[in-house]
Amino acid sequence: MQSFIKKLEEIFPNCPIMPLGEIVYRIVNISKVRIGDEKARTYIDYDEISLNDIDEYGYITVTPGQKNLGPANPTSIKSQSLNHGDIVFTHRGSVFRVGMVGESYERTIVGNNSMIRIQTVDPKPLKRSEKTLPDINLSRYIQAYLQLPLVKEYLGSLIICSTQSERRILNAAMLSKLPIPISKLGHGEFGFSQIIETRMELILKAQTLLDEMHRFLAVCEQRKVDAVKLLCNDAADANVKEDEEYMRVLKEIGRLVKGIS
Q1: Mean pLDDT, to the nearest integer, of 230-258?
Q2: Neighbouring residues of 55: CB distance < 8 A, sequence distance ≥ 6
Q3: How far apart are CA 95 and CA 114, in angstroms?
Q4: Residue 111 forms beta bridges with which residues?
Q5: Cβ atoms of 80 and 30 closer than 8 Å
Q6: Is pTM, for the whole model, over 0.85?
Q7: Which sign does the torsion angle of CA 147, 102, 17, 96 carry?
Q8: Closest Cα to residue 159, out of 144, 145, 171?
């Protein structure tokens, strides 16, 4: 750990380094909600997220009813349901995905037992009439920090092999000790959440653009093959006119290229 802290001090010379567990409310392993007496499991209006629901940028996409979930224990649902601003960290094997829970899900969502949950604030308000607001700036900062290659490499060196499942697992206690630099400016004053969200939106748009370009290139490649087939078969209309789909693709490529330049 000392060598990792030294690296952080070199990269962030003006920031104090603290254990992650000291700047958040709680870090715990997520437990199962389908436990206890089967007759007591009555809650069914929920969705469960797993590694596949978190993309590499940290977006969580929940598809209602995508998993065949059984009835859950209402008490477990109440304690394990994820709140806006919670960070979920998948920790099995060498794949580290870090997602932040949003506020626009249709139903209650829970994580599976392959995740660690990081709560930046106590979800229970001091008074019943009040509502606990998440510290989104702090959540975004921690999420971005956990996604750094340097941090992933360090966490990878900590994971241990479970004797029961033969899988490499990072536990919540280890994650709580993770050194993290703390800015003196304060994440809210810096507008960190807005900066991160804007950049994530740009990344997603760029990814969509790349997907479109790959699709267009596939159409062009197929058209080239078709043209050779037509010519070799002495088709009379081999070069009469291009089909509508190909022309539309050419126009779309031109539009995309113009938008980039």
Answers
A1: 61
A2: 61, 97
A3: 11
A4: 49
A5: yes
A6: no
A7: negative
A8: 171
